[in-house]
């Protein structure tokens, strides 16, 4: 690499010397009416062609090498970014600045790394070319050398300044460009296509996108105008300097102080040097700009995995304990999604004994899902304590905890991959175990429809890719429940598992769930209170607090909020049955 750069660097100055000799020898032949040795002209011509070919060969090899390097770096950069985003605390995803940073860290970084790696070598190449060309020029006339130095200085300074400006602009414009992209995704997305048509949102969204796009484009355009005006200024000054110099050199020629070959070589050198200076200037500005932007990538990769509040106890990591005696204990839990943000959970205390079936009920926004996410250790910046068999959750590493807990979230993931992968992701190391897979799908009530799909468990689900089969909302939910069963964990959490299920499937789910979860601790969030009557413990939540807890019978006797909610739902059924 270094060798090829050095050879590449020397080619222009050798070309100049050859040009001079070639032109002078042609001139000599003309002046002697063809009486001189012609072969020398062919010799120089061949040398010049050879140099040109060598130049192209090196350029081609460098381009291929760069493409290869870029692929490898692209892979490495993306691997590191997704390696980070997939393990980093969920709390980061609540923060829009995190997304801005993620976008800056991801976009075009592999290209930058390649440029940063190539940059110093390319710079060395340009500097050698520049120095040798100036050296050759000075041997023709000192003034030519001085002009070239002047030609170089200005663009270098201006381009470094432009690099800095571009970085500041990109940083400032990232939130805006993300918003522009967001509207585009809404307008192009499959998930939003139905509603956009239903509510006739096209014009409104296009208008919003247009406004943001225009304001973004305006910012970018004003930057381009400014930078191109600077560049135009530099080019103008360079052109004037070159013309003055050429005029001077012509004048020297008339005084017989320069040969025609030297004149040609100097003219060629000016053109050449403009290119070299521009390359040096661009290298400096891109090295500077890239170093600033790569800082974003480095900072991103250095994010700590958890956002730890100062009062969080530091301690050694502990393995997940066997759930035999104390179970799960929550003591005076308080939680906000954002620092100094609204308190979402407050004064939450309860205990779940091993093997108990727990139901969490309450109105929308009461904090049920948030409580479950805290129990899962997905958010750890809470106050108070959560312990598993007296072991503080904050001391149990996330991966260790997840090995023992299975969950179906309200907004469960729909992987547009095969049915096997959708279920097998519950415990990916058992992905190929057909017996386990079928057993889990039977428990989740998905086996009957999966076995009728075109390629059964190997059918691609969803419509994003060719050959995929779309499922109904309830079928997707059954797949998610099967995934949870496939995990075969000690603790199972279901967040509104029956939301998309038909009444038969719902009744079936509760029955199967009760049978299959014997000996396991289960926590189920539900708005359908008839599904909670057999729970060992019902937690009733309101505005982030637990306002009642006990069994169905105890809560009915209490005649409080739970009893009211239950009676209203029961009345609804009776009313419907009578009418
Ligand atoms: N990621 C989040 N960032 C900030 N606030 C959130 C986030 N998720 C939920 N909240 C807020 O926390 C509160 C409780 O939400 P949560 O989803 O826990 O309620 P829920 O009882 O499960 O409601 P539902 O019955 O509607 O599912 C709500 O006010 C909601 O706005």
Automatic annotation (TrEMBL):
GO terms for molecular function: ATP binding. InterPro entries: AAA+_ATPase, ABC1_TM_dom, ABC1_TM_sf, ABC_transporter-like_ATP-bd, ABC_transporter-like_CS, P-loop_NTPase, Type_1_exporter. This is ABC transporter ATP-binding protein/permease. The lineage of its organism: Bacteria, Bacillati, Bacillota, Bacilli, Bacillales. Keywords: ATP-binding, Membrane, Nucleotide-binding, Transmembrane, Transmembrane helix. It is found in: Cell membrane. Signal peptide: none annotated. The keyword Transmembrane applies. It is a multi-pass membrane protein. It comes from Paenibacillus profundus. Residues 328-568 form the ABC transporter domain. Pfam families: ABC_tran. The chain crosses the membrane at residues 140-162, 229-253, 265-288. Residues 1-289 form the ABC transmembrane type-1 domain.
């Amino acid at each position: 690499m270094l060798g090829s750069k050095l050879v590449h660097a020397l080619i222009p100055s050798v070309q100049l010397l050859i040009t001079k000799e070639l032109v002078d020898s042609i001139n000599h032949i003309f002046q002697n009416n063809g009486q001189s040795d012609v072969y020398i002209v062919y010799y120089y011509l061949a040398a010049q062609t050879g140099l040109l070919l060598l130049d192209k060969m090196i350029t081609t090899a460098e381009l291929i090498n760069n493409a290869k390097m870029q692929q490898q770096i692209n892979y490495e950069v993306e691997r590191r970014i997704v390696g980070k985003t997939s393990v980093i605390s969920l709390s980061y995803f609540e923060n829009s600045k995190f997304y801005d940073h993620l976008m800056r860290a991801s976009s075009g970084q592999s290209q930058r790394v390649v440029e940063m790696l190539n940059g110093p070598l390319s710079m060395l190449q340009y500097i050698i070319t520049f120095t040798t060309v100036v050296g050759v020029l000075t041997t023709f006339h000192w003034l030519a050398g001085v002009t070239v130095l002047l030609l170089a200085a200005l663009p270098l300074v201006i381009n470094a300044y432009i690099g800095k400006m571009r970085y500041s602009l990109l940083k400032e414009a990232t939130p805006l460009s993300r918003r522009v992209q967001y509207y585009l995704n809404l307008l192009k997305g499959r998930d939003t296509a139905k509603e956009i048509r239903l509510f006739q949102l096209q014009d409104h969204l296009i208008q919003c996108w247009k406004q943001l796009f225009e304001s973004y484009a305006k910012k970018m355009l004003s930057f381009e105008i400014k930078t191109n005006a600077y560049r135009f200024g530099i080019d103008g000054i360079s052109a004037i300097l070159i013309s003055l110099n050429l005029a001077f050199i012509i004048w020297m020629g008339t005084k017989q102080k320069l040969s025609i070959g030297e004149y040609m070589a100097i003219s060629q050198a000016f053109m050449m040097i403009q290119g070299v200076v521009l390359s040096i200037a661009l290298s400096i500005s891109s090295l500077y700009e890239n170093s600033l932007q790569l800082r974003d990538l480095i900072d991103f990769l250095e994010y700590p995995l958890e956002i730890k509040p100062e009062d969080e106890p530091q301690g050694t990591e502990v393995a997940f304990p066997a759930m035999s005696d104390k179970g799960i204990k929550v003591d005076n839990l308080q939680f906000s999604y954002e620092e100094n943000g609204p308190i979402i959970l407050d004064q939450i205390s309860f205990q779940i004994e091993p093997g108990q079936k727990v139901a969490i009920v309450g109105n929308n926004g009461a904090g049920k899902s948030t409580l479950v996410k805290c129990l899962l250790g997905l958010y750890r910046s809470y106050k108070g304590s959560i312990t598993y068999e007296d072991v503080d959750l904050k001391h149990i590493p996330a991966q260790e905890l997840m090995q023992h807990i299975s969950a179906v979230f309200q907004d469960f993931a729909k992987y547009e991959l095969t049915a096997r992968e959708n279920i097998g992701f519950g415990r990916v190391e058992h992905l190929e175990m057909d017996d386990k897979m079928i057993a889990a799908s039977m428990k989740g009530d998905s086996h009957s429809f999966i076995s009728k799909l075109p390629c059964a468990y190997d059918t691609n689900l969803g419509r994003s890719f060719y050959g995929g089969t779309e499922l109904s909302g309830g079928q997707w939910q059954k797949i998610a429940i099967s995934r949870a069963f496939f995990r075969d964990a000690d603790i199972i959490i279901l967040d509104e598992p029956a939301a998309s299920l038909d009444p038969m499937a719902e009744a079936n789910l509760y029955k199967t769930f009760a049978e299959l979860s014997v000996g396991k601790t289960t926590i189920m969030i539900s708005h359908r209170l008839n599904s909670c009557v057999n729970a060992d413990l019902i937690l009733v939540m309101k505005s982030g607090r637990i306002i009642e807890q006990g069994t169905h019978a105890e809560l009915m006797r209490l005649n409080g909020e739970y009893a009211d909610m239950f009676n209203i739902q029961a009345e609804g059924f009776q009313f419907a049955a009578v009418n």
